[in-house]
Every structure is written in structure tokens, then in C-alpha cells.
Amino acid sequence: MPLTVVRREHVHLYTREPESRAAKTAVDALLRLQHAEDQQIESARIDSGLTKNEFLAVRYLLQAHRDGRTMGPKDLAVMLAVSNASVTKIVDGLVQKGLLSRTAHPTDRRAQVLAPTDQAADKIDASYARFHAAVVEVLEQLPDADNAVLADSLTKIVDALAAGTPAPVDEYTVDDQD
Question: Rounded to an integer, what distance in angstroms lies between the CA atom of residue 115 and that of residue 101?
Fold first, then answer.
């Protein structure tokens, strides 16, 4: 019985059901998309042989690197919400696997700079490739008007979710308005 609940949890809506059949169909499709993405990411993480925290660490460091930001172990500890000892173990393992490099900080001799290797970038990019390719392939087949309606609807959902929620302001927050 518990597995049945877990297997169907992604189709459960934690609010009132939409009144129209068309809205219900759209909500169901959105929930299935969210679940499919979660499953793809977890499958990729398992295939990568990395733990959840290792996988997240590589993702965060890769994004920071692509954004031109440097990160050290302390930054990673905050992002992963783990202790300094735990992040040291994670970083040591990723360095040993050839997925991260660790160098001295250029201005603070007590600090370190972590950077993903090309192997790490390939691993993370490959993990998302199938999901992203499927999304692009399907959406490229839609008429422009349908894509415009979809984009507008998804933007409205994102805006509604963000409404009333103060955005954190720190070095990890990216302003999407740029």
C-alpha cells in the first residue's frame, strides 16, 4: 500500500480541482511533466554513480562556473545545507573522481576555489540532455501561436507562485530581468 501512495503522489492535487475539464487536463499534464522531470533527474543521478549531494554539488558548481562566479567549500556547504565536515567529504570524493578541481583562492590564502572539470560538465549536461531534447523536440513541432499561449500560461503560473514571496537577495540569486 505505501508504494501505491508514493507512485501516485505526483498526480494528487493539493487544492481544489479545476472546475473545467480542460483546466483539469492541463493541470494533470503539468503535474505529469513535473514528475517526469524529477524521474529523469533521479535516473541520471543514479546512472552517474553520484550521491544526491554530490550530484547537486556538481550542478551548483557548474552553474556558478558558467555564470562566471567562483565558489568555495563554504559556499557549497550553505547551498547544500550541510556541515563543513560533510562538504569536505563531498568535495574530497568529487576531486578523487576527477569531477572537481580545488585550488587556492587568489586573494585569501585560507580559502579554496572549487571548479567543475570538463568531465563533470559532460556528466551533468548528459544527465539533462534527454529531458531537454524531448521538450525542445515537442515544442518545435507546435505552431508559434500554441507556443506563445503555452509560454504565457507558464509565465503566469510562475508569477503567481512568486507573488508575495520575497526573493532572496544574495550572491546566488540571479535576476531574470536582465
Answer: 5
CA atoms of 146 and 66, how far apart (whole Å)? 32
Q: Provide the pLDDT confidence category of residue 27 given band limits of 50, 70 and 90.
A: confident
End-to-end CA distance of the chain: 48
Model confidence band, residue 178 (pLDDT cutoffs 50, 70, 90): very low
- The amino acid at residue 120 is A
3-state class (DSSP) for residue 52: helix
- Dist CA 41 CA 63 (whole Å): 16
**If you count DSSP H runs as helices and E runs as strands, how many of each does the chain have, helices first?**
7, 2
Contact between 112 and 72 under an 8 Å Cβ cutoff? The reply is: yes
pTM of this structure: 0.71
